[in-house]
Amino acid sequence: MEQKSQEELDKYYMKLAIDEANKSIPLESAYCVGAVLVHPEKNIILATGFSRELPGNTHAEECCFLKLQNQEKENIIPSAADLMKNSTIYTTMEPCSKRLSGNKPCVDHILNYNVSRVVMGVKEPQNFVHCTGVQLLRDKGVEVTILDGFEEQCLKPNRHLNLKL
Q: Which is the catalytic residue, given 53, 61, 62, 94?
């Protein structure tokens, strides 16, 4: 079996994250984002998520983490934190650094679960808040990659908004 390069894997998982983003129900006050959390060594999907998939005004990345926590609570997996440590999260948009809802920002979740790599399709537009997710993550030693060539596909689920790039 031919092994894929990291670049090929990044593109593959980003396309899955875009598929997740397209499941989001559009709102005038929020983005439609998709995320895929991948095991660091086995390259298997640990969880997927999209904006508002779960109750509580959830973000895509947050849904991935919550799903794994729920699997731990149901004794499906032994430790969500162990699985997430050093994982990679693919997200169609820059992880939020501030939330108007008062909920915990996705950057905090990423740091809390020791995710070591974030691959994203586009930086967060300036519609709602000034996002500093990339810088906050890099400052804490998280590898952040912005994939070239995915901006249009990652923004498309948000066509209902007048995006300010």
A: 61
Beta-bridge partners for 88: 38, 117
Supply 31's token pair.
């983005």
Q: How large is the C-alpha radius of gyration of the chain?
A: 15
Name all domains of the chain by residue range, CATH numbers in brackets.
6-155 (3.40.140.10)
For residue 125, what is the DSSP state?
P
Hey, what are 160's tokens? 């209902």
For residue 139, what are the contacts with CB-CB under 8 A and spacing of at least 6?
none
- 6: tokens are 């990291």
* pTM given for the model: 0.94
> Residue 110 — pLDDT band, cuts 50, 70, 90?
very high
At 157, is the pLDDT very low, low, confident or very high (cuts 50, 70, 90)? Answer: very high
Decide if pLDDT at 2 tops 80.
no
Query: Which tokens is 74 given?
Result: 């149901």
Task: Give catalytic status of residue 61 as yes or no.
Answer: yes
Cα(41)–Cα(103) distance, integer angstroms: 31
Q: String of b and e for 140-161 (b: at least 16 CB within 10 Å)?
A: eebebbebeebeebbbebbeeb
**Angle, CA 156 vertex, CA 155 and CA 160 arms, to 5°:** 100
